[in-house]
Amino acid sequence: MEHTHHIHAPRNDYGRFIATILLFCLLAAAGYALQHTISCFLLSWVIAYLLDPLLVSASKRGVKRIYALGLLYIVLGVLTVFFLTFIVPAITISWNSFVLDLPAYIQKLKQIALSWKSRVPDRYGSDEIQWLIDKASANIDTAAEKTGFWAYSFGTRIFFNLFNIVLSPILVFFMLYYKQTVIDTMISWLPDGWRDQIVDIAHEVDSSIGGYLRGQVMVSLIVALLASIALFVLGISHPIFCGVFAGAASILPFIGVIIATLPALFFAWFKFQTAASLGQTIGVFGMIYFVEGYVIKPLVFKESMNLNPLVTIIMVMALGETLGFWGILLALPIASAIKITWGHFVSGHFKQR
């Protein structure tokens, strides 16, 4: 009886899958090693992405792109002078005041810990409570000792950020000027059978990401402005610092609302030390985020990304740890792009034509 031996073709799917994982790991390692370079590129890309609709609108009105770009840079130059003349000094004064007051805040925390220690009754378990208070007090001392190192590290990061800010206008100019050339070149590299489909997906992704980035920047600016004004009216220390922090924290989904209130609550308690001041601060932020969630975002965000909350949190954590602030900002757009592309792939739109 003859035995027929079937020769199975090697499955290349596993090899491609492993190669894809290795490629993503390599890109993640390169991103971690080149954080400052990638940060500068991403800053320029986001700025160019936000400004490009203005150039597109000017082109539709018959203005050449180079002329529209020149006019745009003149307007941005005037706004930059205004920002450096009025806004930057106010932020710098607020930051310097916060740094000068930081040792006093640390010492006040230590005094509170010692006060709690003296109030612990001599009962069962009091030794454990005093041990916890001693540990907290020791940690406060350690934090005070590390304040100088922290300030130095922050100054180093500020230097690289200033370098990015100086270099970004040049990169933004070339990104905006050569935009169509780059797009045409990339389209020419696509396979003929998939070209039209990939271009359609790219337009869909572009609409989703563009709407999110422009909307998020607008929402963050509005939250920062409203929070700064409200905290100034309440008489809470460092309102500009707290407002800028609240605007940046609004980028974080779900937990951003909670994180944004922490500095304001901290300064309100240290200045007034009353439950009423904490209640007023929580009430103000509650009103701000109510307006943000039910008035501003529905007007700004025309389309929702409809992302799974678990996927959103994982993407924010992973990209935030890899790329810092820019990873957090771009986590949702990247997740949305992956979702859109995967949806077309599952629907069979990538079949060879």
Q: Could you name the key traits of this structure?
A:
353 residues, mainly alpha
How would you describe this protein?
With about 350 residues, the chain is mostly helical. The protein has a domain at about 15-190. Helices cover about 85% and strands about 0% of the residues. It has helices at about 10-35, 35-60, 65-120, 125-145, 145-175, 180-190, 195-235, 240-250, 255-270, 275-300, 310-325, 325-345. Helix 2 (about 35-60) crosses helix 3 (about 65-120). The protein is globular and about 75 Å long.
Over the alpha carbons, how many angstroms does the gyration radius reach? 26 Å
Order of helices and strands: HHHHHHHHHHHH
Low confidence ranges: 1-11
Q: Count the beta strands.
A: 0
Number of helices: 12
What is the approximate shape? Answer: globular
Q: What is the averaged pLDDT score?
A: 76
Strand fraction equals: under 5%
How far apart lie the N and C ends? 45 Å
Q: Which structural class best describes the helix and strand composition? A: mainly alpha
Helix percent reads over 70%
Largest sheet: none
Summarize, please.
By secondary structure, this protein is mostly helical. Helix content is 84%, strand content 0%. The chain is built from 12 helices and no strands.
